[in-house]
Hints:
- There is one protein chain.
- The protein has helices at residues 98-136, 367-370, and strands spanning 71-72, 75-76, 168-169, 172-176, 188-190, 194-199, 202-207, 215-217, 228-236, 242-249, 254-263, 266-274, 284-290, 298-306, 311-316, 319-325, 336-338, 341-343, 346-348, 353-361, 386-388.
- By secondary structure, the chain is mainly beta.
- Strand 6 and strand 7 (202-207) form a beta hairpin.
- Mean pLDDT is 74; it is low at 1-5, 8-94 and 124-155.
Amino acid sequence: MTEGTDRPHNPQPNPATGPGGYGYPPGQIPGAGYGYPQPGQPNPYSAQPQPGAPGAFGEPAFGEPAFGEPTTFGGPARHQEPAFAQPSQPSQPSQPDWQAMADRSEAQRSRRKTLSIIGGAVTVVLLAGGGYLFFAGGSDDKPKDDKPPIAASDSPSPSKSPEDKSPTVAGDPTLLRDRVPGGSPVQLAMAPDASLFKMGERDEVRFKGGPNSFAQGSEQAVDVTKSFSVTTRLYTVVENGSRMAISQGDGDSYSFELGFESVNGKGSWVFRVQTGDKGADATVQQVVVDAPGAVNKWTQLTATYDADKKTIALYVEDKLAGAAQISGIWPGPGPVQLGRSRHHGIWSGSLVGSLDRIRIWNKVLSPEQVAVLDSGKLDSLGMPSHAWII
């Protein structure tokens, strides 16, 4: 920890802006109209069949007999009527064989009796088998329904309105939306050289550096006289100067600032607070830890202040990196800032890089709570007071 000294102010030149403009190459869009006849040409699907011409879909030509019908020169062949047969002389009926008829009747009764006995036996067997299958749970041959029955607890719940995950305020793409429902939202207005980018499933706000590269809140988001925690992910693309992620103060000085700083070619993560009025160098308290290989990669930073114990702490990648005892934090009344900080009445610490997952709690997070910040399992942390780009 370094006390009583403020970092040197190294204003950075604004990076050159590249050409923009995304679009499509000029050209005429060809017309459509698939499957329709061109103007002035007959529609082949509306023509009527002509005599002698083959019909559509393999039908016989107009006026020709159907397939398989015999033809003659005058048209289809006529059916020939058969000649009337001459009736024959009736013969004398013979006497029936009564004994044979009795034998046949007896044989039929015997056959019906036998079939009735066999049918009854089969019915008894089937009923017995069916009863066994009923008590045994059914046959394997019965079609099974793979879908489990829906219990009362599985019934669909009432539909809920989808969560609004937009990072900006509706109707204003330059205003970062405070994602915490209820309370007193603090929206962040992006300056011209700060912009929002969609990266797969997440969003990030990018800063080009310079006087027009920042996002400013509508009011202060942190009461520095009480305990608080601030966390964000930072991606810096330069390794020189001071590059602040988030700060808050007034027109003369910061109350706190969190970010990256390089002094004499050595990069560091820094959480710095002002303990006296008007930003005097002698009243600065800070926690500084080495940041090897910090450039061009995402790093999660968390700063906490315990108002009861009067301690500040800095976590890097959810691990405690350093702590310091302080006398308190001077409460500058100005709004929260992204991408810059206030020093001796001058804006400095301009960030060249990106931020996301910015959250503030009105309490001090314990090391165990900070350890789960990157896991996404935040139930144990409670609702933050403010959140942007999450």
